[in-house]
C-alpha cells in the first residue's frame, strides 16, 4: 500500500517475516510535506505491544463487520448501583 492511503486508527493486514497478522495504525503516516517510511502499529494479541512497521509491509486494509470506522467495537458493562 502507499502511505497516502493509510488512515490513523484503522486495522491493516501486515506481512512481517513471512507471517501475516492484523495491526492497528496508531499514528498518522503524514510528516511535514511528505510521508513516513515506517509507522507505529499496535498488534492486538498477547503482550506484543507496539512496533514500527515499514509501510511497504502493509498489505491491505481490514474491515471489521459491524464497524463503521474500521476499528474495534468497544463493549462496556454498566453495573447497577
Describe this protein's structure.
This protein has 81 residues and is an all-beta fold. It has a single domain (3-62), classed as SH3 type barrels (Roll). The protein has strands at 11-16, 19-25, 30-31, 34-35, 38-43, 49-54, 58-62. A hairpin with a 2-residue loop joins β1 and β2. The relative contact order is 0.28.
CATH topology: SH3 type barrels
Order of helices and strands: EEEEEEE
- CATH class division: Mainly Beta
Multimeric status of the protein: single chain
Q: How much of the residues is beta strand, in percent?
A: 35-45%
Distance between the termini: 49 Å
Query: Can you count the beta strands?
Result: 7
Tally of DSSP helical segments: 0
Rg of Cα set? 14 Å
- What does the main sheet amount to? 5 strands, antiparallel
Side-by-side strand order of the widest sheet: 6-5-2-1-7
Secondary-structure-derived class? mainly beta
- Kindly state the mean pLDDT as a whole number? 79
Care to give the gist of this entry?
With 81 residues, the chain is mostly beta strands. The protein has no helices and seven strands. Strand 5 and strand 6 form a beta hairpin.
